[in-house]
Design brief:
Elements lengths: L5 E3 L38 H20 L4 H8 L6 H7 L4 E3 L2 H8 L2 H13 L1 H11 L3 H12 L8 E2 H11 L5 H15 L8 E2 L12 H7 L17 H13 L9 E5 L15 E2 H6 L3 E2 L11 E5 L8 E4 L1 H9 L3 H15 L17 H13 L13 H13 L10 H9 L1
Antiparallel strand pairs: 1-2, 3-4, 5-7, 5-9, 6-8, 8-9
Helix pairs in contact: 3-8, 4-14, 5-7, 6-7, 6-11, 7-11, 7-14, 8-9, 9-10, 10-11, 11-13, 13-14, 15-17
GO biological process, one term: peptidoglycan catabolic process
Pfam families: PG_binding_1, SLT_2
GO molecular function, one term: peptidoglycan lytic transglycosylase activity
Length: about 425
């Protein structure tokens, strides 16, 4: 995903788990919080869709057998699988809305995520230190990826993976992509790392603590605990965290190098020098007047870096290194790589950005967004929570409010909307 100030809204995972399968994973039939899980799928999916999926699966089995998947694996994998309309609904309901880099970073590197990240570092410090020693990836970076991907394991995804991928593959969603993920998932099952009842993830097939899709799992997942399984799903995050570090290491991570460092620009700086591909050493940038913005030190003088100024001249500027590009291999959005880098710095104890929000930016700060959600709820337009995140529920509430007042129905939060809500 290219960074163009447009980010896809994150979908909450539904509580759905295949139960009753034998295997070494405790808690079958209960959620990660220990509560009983309901199926969550439509109890009566369209008969034509069920029949169509069954026929499609039989055809896919032939393709899988030609790639070495055994009959016993196929029988085990597809047992109980049926068409899941909820998966299709989620695939079609990815509300996309404009969100500034600053709003994204404020959510991604929230105080709660920092606090929980420090707790995770304290709890798993020994494991993360061993991972850092093995793969050369800073433990804070690995923890930051963990926080970004699954909120430190709280949101690993509860949908049965084979059923989700089969449904999407049958529907032809995104062409060959989901069919290739289904094939990879079958290879994972055949390897014995997981059983179908515990192979869960998001509607799109992202799995476990670090949200690997099946093909990424096959390429980069590791057995760090030495128990014979590459287990990224269970409550123990060791294998998942090591897998993320292995992915970054094989994507070009250089030990001891920051991914992104905020800098200040001199007055009248030539902005044409900024941009990816326009590499200079740190010493060269310093000769042009760039300076360290806060307590975070610059990379060594000879390091090849690029300057990005994603918010324009009035926003924060960053020198990025090869490690920034390694993070982009994980998620190809500058916003994501900046969030991981900055969250890791906060977990190390460095301060926030020196210039996090351009004064002329029209967006709402997180507390203002929370106030907007509270006021919408008070006026009968439920946002399904007051968390400052402008997702599909909040957008729907804004649209309903605007329609009720005869306003242009945009669904977009704004200072003008907040002021109108304040007035009643």
């Amino acid at each position: 995903m290219r960074f163009s100030m447009r980010l896809t809204a994150t979908l909450a995972t539904m509580a759905l788990l295949l139960g009753g399968c034998a295997g070494p994973y405790p808690g079958a039939g209960v959620s990660q919080q220990g509560q009983e899980i309901k199926w969550g799928r439509d109890q009566n999916p369209p008969a034509a869709k069920v029949t169509g999926l069954n026929s499609w699966v039989e055809g896919f089995k032939g393709r899988a057998r030609s790639q070495g998947i055994s009959a016993s694996t196929l029988d085990f994998a597809f047992r109980g699988v049926t068409y899941n309309p909820e998966v299709v609904r989620r695939s079609q309901n990815q509300a996309e809305f404009k969100k500034s880099l600053w709003e994204y970073l404020e959510n991604a590197v929230s105080e709660k995520r920092q606090t929980n990240g420090r707790a995770a570092l304290a709890q798993y410090g020994g494991v993360l230190s061993r991972i850092e020693a093995t793969y050369g990836v800073d433990k804070e970076i690995v923890a930051a990826v963990w926080g970004m991907e699954s909120t430190y394991g709280e949101r690993r995804g509860d949908l049965p993976l084979i059923e989700s991928l089969a449904t999407l593959g049958y529907e032809g969603y995104r062409g060959e992509f989901f069919r290739s993920q289904l094939m990879a998932a079958l290879k994972i099952l055949q390897s014995g790392d997981i059983d179908p009842g515990h192979m869960t993830g998001s509607w799109a097939g992202a799995m476990g603590h670090t949200q690997f899709i099946p093909t990424t799992y096959l390429a980069y997942a590791v057995d760090f605990t030495g128990d014979g399984r590459r287990d990224i799903w269970s409550n123990d995050p060791s294998d998942a965290l090591a897998s993320a570090a292995n992915y970054l290491a094989k994507s070009g991570w250089q030990r001891g190098l920051p991914a992104a460092v905020e800098v200040t620009l001199p007055p009248g700086f030539n902005m044409a020098l900024a941009g990816k591909g326009k590499r200079r050493s740190v010493a060269e940038w310093q000769s042009l007047g760039l300076r360290q913005a806060n307590q975070r030190p610059l990379p060594p003088a000879g390091t090849s870096t690029e300057l990005i100024v994603p918010g324009g001249a009035s926003g924060a500027a960053f020198l990025i290194t090869r490690n920034f590009h390694a993070i982009l291999r994980y998620n190809n959005a500058d916003s994501y790589a900046l969030a991981v880098s900055h969250l890791a710095d906060r977990l190390r104890g460095y301060p926030g950005l020196a210039n996090p929000w351009p004064a002329d930016h029209p967006g709402l700060r997180i507390e203002q967004r929370k106030e907007m959600q509270r006021l919408l709820g008070a006026r009968g337009f439920d946002t399904q929570g007051v968390d400052g995140n402008v997702g599909s529920n909040t957008i729907s509430a804004i649209r309903a409010y605007q329609a009720s007042r005869g306003l242009p129905v945009t669904g977009e939060p704004s200072a003008a909307l907040l002021e109108q809500l304040r007035r009643g």
